[in-house]
Amino acid sequence: MRFQKLKRIVEQQDTTAGKVFDLFLQTLIVLSLFAFSLETIPELSIYEDWFFRIEEFVVTIFTLEYITRLIVADKKLKFVFSLGGIVDLLAIAPFYISKGIIDLRIIRIFRLMRVFRVLKLLRYSRAVRRFVHAFNSIKEELIVFFIATVFILYLASAGIYFFEHDAQPEQFKSIFHSMWWALATLTTVGYGDIYPVTFGGKLFTFVVLLIGLGVVSVPSALLASALAHKDSLDIKSLSKDKRHPIVNKKD
Question: Which of 43, 123, 145, 237 stands 20 to 30 A from 7 (CA)?
Fold first, then answer.
């Protein structure tokens, strides 16, 4: 009985105890990130011991949470390699790894990895879970689109190299050097550190920019469509549930 009660608290968010448990962990995440940010202020270095104690306390709680989730998981190996399990492990691993390292520079790197702790907040957001479901429903389309984007990126790099290499040999040394320009242009960022000077290069840039608008808008459209589809399914399921206050009315 105690095991099942613990399982409901840890895995379910529709109970009072589960909501309190989630709220407590969310508060710890925010506290940890806030303390981590304060550590970077040089004037507050005198409070380093306090920051370390806060970190120890937070890591202890997160470690107990990870162990508890592992114990109550029906398929433990699946939990370990799931997104939630990996995020939970990343939240505590830097602390333990840095304990066994002498080089202070490497310790700083692992301390910086604590920013991954913010990903734990994703576990407790229903809106984020909706996005995850939406992404899962269009993952094949996104993979195809990603492959197409990489192909377009290469073509843009090769094209601008052809137009600009002779005019700007230092900026566009090779196709690989041109990829930075192609990436900035396709994403419509346009930093302006590298830009075409020839007429052909400018005309080609115009074409790439038009393609870039599609590169940015297509994933957004796919995600919006998936979210709208999921919302319609949720509404239909609720309308069929007799216990739900939604009542189908004729026009």
Answer: 237
Residue 105 structure tokens = 């520079």
Residue 121: DSSP 8-state: G
pLDDT classification of 250: cutoffs 50, 70, 90: very low
What are the CA-CA distances from residue 61 to residues 23, 25, 56, 243 (Å)?
13, 8, 9, 38
Q: At what angle do helices 199-240 and 126-137 cross, to 10 degrees?
A: 110
Q: How many Cβ atoms are within 10 Å of 159's Cβ, its own excluded?
A: 19
Long-range contacts of 169-172 (CB under 8 A, 24+ apart): none
Residue 106 neighbours by CB under 8 Å, 6+ apart:
98
Token match 């520079």: residue? 105
What are the start-end ranges of the H helices in the chain?
2-11, 16-39, 48-72, 76-80, 83-99, 104-112, 126-137, 139-164, 175-186, 199-240
Say what the pTM is. 0.55
Beta-carbon contacts of residue 22 (< 8 Å; ≥ 6 apart): 13, 124
What pLDDT is stored for residue 2 in this prediction?
72
Percent of the chain with pLDDT over 90: 14
- CB-count exposure of residue 201 (10 Å: 0-12, 13-18, 19+): buried
User: Are 64 and 58 a contacting pair, CB within 8 Å?
Assistant: no
